[in-house]
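Thread amino acids onto this structure.
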C-alpha cells in the first residue's frame, strides 16, 4: 500500500510542473489570433511602441505598403494617451505627427471608418513609408479582427494609391 502511495505522489510531483506550463485560455486565444493575422498577411511583432509610457501588453500589427507605393508618414494617438496640446483628429484621436500633405477625401474617409472600428485598447495608429502599424492590446477575436483587417487593408491601399498619384502629379510639368 505504501509503495502505491509513494508512486502516486512521485507521479503527481513529476506531472504538476507540466500542468502549470499549459497555456491559459487568453494565451490560446492570442495564439490563434496572431496565427490568423500572419496567415492573412499581417505582420505581428512585439516591439517598443511609440508611446512615451506605454501600458504593458501593446503589440504591433503591421500592414505593409508595396515598395513601389510607399505610404505617408503620420502618427495618431488615442486621447487617453495623448497630450491635450496635440491637434485633434476626431473625438477620440489626436495627431502626434500629421501627414505632410493633407489626406485625400477618400483616405480621410477610410481613416475615419477605421478608427470607428478600433477597440478601446488600440492606442496608436502609425503610418511609415513601409507599413501601416496598429499598436493595441489584442482584444478582438478572429471574426472582429477580420473586419478590422479589411478596414486597415482598405486604408493602406487608399493611402498608397493617393500617395502615388500625388507623387506623380508633383513630377509632372
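Threaded sequence (173 positions):
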Amino acid at each position: 500500500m505504501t509503495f502505491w502511495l509513494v508512486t502516486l505522489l512521485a507521479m503527481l510531483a513529476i506531472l504538476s510542473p507540466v500542468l502549470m506550463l499549459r497555456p491559459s485560455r487568453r494565451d490560446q486565444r492570442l495564439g490563434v489570433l496572431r496565427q490568423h493575422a500572419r496567415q492573412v498577411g499581417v505582420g505581428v511583432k512585439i516591439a517598443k511602441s511609440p508611446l512615451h509610457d506605454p501600458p504593458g501588453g501593446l503589440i504591433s500589427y503591421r500592414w505593409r505598403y508595396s515598395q513601389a507605393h510607399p505610404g505617408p508618414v503620420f502618427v495618431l494617438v488615442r486621447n487617453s494617451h495623448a497630450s491635450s496640446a496635440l491637434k485633434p483628429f476626431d473625438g477620440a484621436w489626436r495627431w502626434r505627427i500629421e501627414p505632410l500633405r493633407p489626406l485625400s477625401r477618400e483616405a480621410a474617409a477610410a481613416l475615419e471608418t477605421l478608427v470607428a472600428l478600433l477597440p478601446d485598447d488600440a492606442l496608436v495608429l502609425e503610418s511609415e513609408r513601409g507599413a501601416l502599424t496598429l499598436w493595441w492590446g489584442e482584444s478582438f477575436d478572429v471574426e472582429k479582427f477580420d473586419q478590422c483587417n479589411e478596414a486597415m487593408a482598405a486604408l493602406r491601399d487608399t493611402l498608397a494609391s493617393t500617395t502615388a498619384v500625388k507623387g506623380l502629379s508633383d513630377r509632372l510639368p
